[in-house]
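Lab intake sheet, docking and co-folding queue.

SAMPLE TYPE: protein with bound small molecule
LIGAND NAME: zinc ion
LIGAND FORMAT: SMILES
REQUESTED OUTPUT: full 3D complex as structure tokens
PRIORITY: normal
SUBMITTED BY: R.K., bench team

The fields below were copied directly from the construct record.
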Amino acid sequence: MAFRGKRSRFPRFKSKRRSRASAEYTRSAFRYADGRLVLAKMTEPLDIVWSRPLPADVVPSTVTVSRDSAGRWFVSLLCEDTPAPMPVTTKAVGIDAGLMALVALSTGERVTNPRHERRDRERLVRAQRSLARKEKGSKNRAKARVRVARIHARIADRRRDHLHKLTTRLVRENQTLVIEDLTVRNMLKNHKLARAINDVAWRELRTMMEYKTAWYGRELITVDRWFPSTRLCSACGALAETMPLNVREWTGGNCGTTHDRDENAALNLLAAGLAVTAWGTDARPQRESSSRSGRSVLKQEAPPATVGIPSP
Ligand SMILES: [Zn+2]
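RESULT FIELD (auto-filled):
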């Protein structure tokens, strides 16, 4: 992993001429928690560009800091523990980026944003306004800028913590996880939607689910974003013509079942994901939304959404 920052904070090596210099830190000479690494005699964590994240329950036993001949710095972490395998389960879950909640699950559960998020955001708006009023180049402006940055960092930290807990739980509880391939650009086109859905949170959530499912031998299925998950009746498979964003609850005209919008979408995602695994890898939706084959398979051949939904 490469890292960047001020030179003065990094260890000094005895020989500057050696092509690759390195220093080793044993357990007592560093602190590591939640992806932050603080070396002995340093007060701030290193600004690390991770090549890949470390599993949450793994603590490195040795840290090696090195500098190559090009003057680039690297940190490598030696870990003795591998993530403990999670108990085998046959459960599957559909996860929908909800309109009101952060996510809605096919189990009917909704997960909201972190508790402090709204208040933090209000504080952020106030701090930004105050910054805008300060005279350019003034000391007060510099102070105001630091305040804005601190609030930003706190929001990000709390959100990440929240998402880590959520994704670890979802991966622990389920063998198969199905999500929709939402692209951020598309969500931002609609401002109402952009307000309701935290696109950054969704992207982070997806990344976490990608590597956690890989660590623990779970399966993540991405369903093409053209799949009409919100308009499809999860009870009978009938397709509603339109589904305006303000509709929270709707009744299928064919079978008369009343749906919660987000839960229905999560149920459809789950069914579509399970259907494509049952058909084998050829039918699996591609990770790239540009894939035509994935799109057409789901559009034309998706069976009624009741197929494969496990009883709760
Ligand atoms: Zn129906």
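REVIEWER NOTE: Confidence is low (pLDDT under 50) at residues 4-8, 192-197, 281-312.
SIGN-OFF: pending second check by T.M.
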